[in-house]
Amino acid sequence: MRFPYFILFFCILVLTAACDNGEKKSVKPEESTAENSQEKDSVTEAQFKSGLVLRFRDYRKEYCFTNNDAEVNDFCSEMDLHMLTVELKDQSVADRINLAIIKGVTNNTLKEKSLSQWVSEGVERNDIEMAYQRSIRCDVVEKSHDILVVVIGNYEYYYGAAHGGGTTETFNFDLHSGKVLGLSDILQAGYGKELKRIAEKFFISENGAEGWDFTPGGGDFALAHNISFTRKGMVFVYDAYEIGPYAAGAPSMCIPWKELKKLLIEGSLIQDFIDHPSKEEEELGC
Predict the structure, then answer these.
(1) Which residues of the chain have pLDDT under 70?
(2) Which residues face 84 on adjacent strands?
(3) Residue 129's pLDDT is what?
(4) 186: which of 75, 258, 263, 268 fits an S-S bond (Cβ 3.0–4.6 Å)?
(5) Which residue, of 131, 165, 181, is where some domain finishes?
(6) Which range marks the domain in which residue 66 is found?
(7) How far is CA 147 from CA 51, 165, 178, 180, 272, in A?
(8) Which of 162, 181, 200 is where one domain is finished?
């Protein structure tokens, strides 16, 4: 199991960052403006006793602004969505997981609309000043008999902006209940201070000690918002600005489970990862 989601995420950033920062003006789309919409599906085979099936569907909507003003660039407002739907033998658990994914993708704005409508309405059509390009990806970074780890990457570039920006959101799903697992579900009470100490050590080992928003050994190291429970270990990925300047990108680190063993709740769902560790080559320092 590789860990491609943050790499893909920032590749999108590079590919979409080529727009002029000159004077901006309000522009209405002309008759020649193009509008395109695409949808396609892919599906995995059923996995594990839970009957886990992963269905992916791609949605794409584009609306291009054109004009005759040399001071204003043509610009295509775009929305791309790589959506995930989970199927399980227990439909109630699948429904709970899918609802969490939909809320994460749409920021709880879907309401009564279909995803196709939501994507279409997300493309600004009236004013180039408000136009933007947006890409949302749902990627599975770990799956087992007990746990499914889904990461939602969101990248946005607004017309005329100096650069785009992105965020990620991680869901560690319990496949037995559909619950989103947090640190308190796998670590013993009072884990905070010791986990931060261990995490800071691994962060500095993989990313260096200089240029971050904490003082090494000063007690102000912050845990990442995005933490994935993978077979290799507990993986931390920081969004831009979360722990350092934009230029630092999205630093990451991985703490092997053996380093956290004394903090783990006995019999937690992580035990399968400890008993059956990944046999892949070293990745992210684990």
Answers:
(1) 1-38, 67-73, 124-126, 281-285
(2) 56
(3) 73
(4) 268
(5) 181
(6) 1-181
(7) 13, 30, 9, 10, 10
(8) 181
